[in-house]
Amino acid sequence: MNKRRKFLKSATMALTTLGVLSQRNLFANTAGQNALQHNVYFWLKNTVSDKERKAFEKGMKKFVKSVKEIQKAEIGKPANTARRDVVDHSFDYSLYIRFKSLEDHNVYQEHEAHKQFITDFQSLWAKVLVYDTNPI
User: Fold this and answer.
1) 83: CATH
2) For the whole model, what pTM was predicted?
């Protein structure tokens, strides 16, 4: 019985330590001196067809892959979370992009693939909002 208690105590301590370490790492490496998060929200016109939506998604994926300065990117749609006053589910697509620096972001803004994406798809947008943040 004594061995079992010792084992359980050791296992509990190990799991607790892992939990603390994983929580400490929750924000590790997310904030660089100049890191930048570029969050774009798209509202498409009501007249946009399913075929145009698919082309829009494909176009986003294509241009994101073309810009080497992008550290990380995710494309999304509104989640099926609870309706609350503080949650906005009204957009059609979101684009999250992470850059190592403001300079990388600036290269992205002028990149031919980004400009081509805008040219190809801006006719589908009813509204676009951008939120740029520096992680802390």
Assistant:
1) 3.30.70.100
2) 0.77
